[in-house]
Amino acid sequence: MEEISADKIASDLYQQGVLNFERGDYQKAITMLERARALAILETSLGGEILIWLANAYDANGRTEEAIALCRSLKNHPVGDVRKSAKYILGILTAPPLSKLEGVVSEVPILASPDTYQSKPIARSTGTTSQKPFREVSLEKPNTESKNNFLWFAIAVTLSVLALWAAKSG
C-alpha cells in the first residue's frame, strides 16, 4: 500500500481551497486552506501560496484584520514571490479608503425606449442653477429631401478626372 505524504495532502487541500475561493465559497476556502496550512511546510513555496490565498479568503469573508496580520507575518518569508505577493496584498488592504468627490454626480438613464426618456436636472449643493447632465439630441429623422448640389458636383468632377486619366492611360 502506498503512503500519501502530508505535503501531497496539503497540496490537494490547497487546490480545493483555491477552487472554493474562485467559486465564491470563502468560508469553505478558509476551511480547506487552514487544513492545508496545518499540514504544509510553511517556509516552502507551497506553504507561502497557501498563506497568501488564506489571506485573500479571510479578506473576502470580512476578516480583513486577520488577512492583514497574516500578510505582515509573511514579510520575512524565505520565498521572494511570497514576500512580494504579501506586500502587494498588504498595500491594498491597508490603503486609505477613497472618498467621494463632493458635488460630482453621474447619472445614467435607463431607457425602455428612446421616446420615454425625460431628462432630470441634477441637484447641486452650491445653490447654482441646475443643469441637464448632458445635451439632448433630437431623435427625429434628418431631412433627406433637401437637395445637396455640392455632392452631385463632387461626383461629376471625380468622374471627369477618372475619365481623363483613363483616356491618357489607354
Describe this structure in words.
With 170 residues, the protein is an all-alpha fold. It has a domain of 88 residues: Serine Threonine Protein Phosphatase 5, Tetratricopeptide repeat (Alpha Horseshoe), CATH 1.25.40. It is 55% helix and 0% strand. It contains 6 helices and no strands. Helix 1 packs antiparallel against helix 2. The model has no long low-confidence stretch (mean pLDDT 81).
TL;DR of this structure?
The protein is mainly α and 170 residues long.
Any chance you could write out the topology, listing elements then pairs?
Elements (H helix, E strand, L loop, with lengths): L5 H18 L2 H14 L5 H16 L3 H10 L6 H14 L55 H21 L1
Helix pairs in contact: 1-2, 1-3, 2-3, 3-4, 3-5, 4-5
Q: Roughly how many Å is the radius of gyration?
A: 33 Å
Fill in the CATH topology of the domain at 6-93.
Answer: Serine Threonine Protein Phosphatase 5, Tetratricopeptide repeat
Mean of pLDDT: 81
Number of helices: 6
Low-confidence stretches: none
Q: Which properties best describe this structure?
A:
55% helix; 6 helices; 170 residues; Serine Threonine Protein Phosphatase 5, Tetratricopeptide repeat; 0% strand; mainly alpha
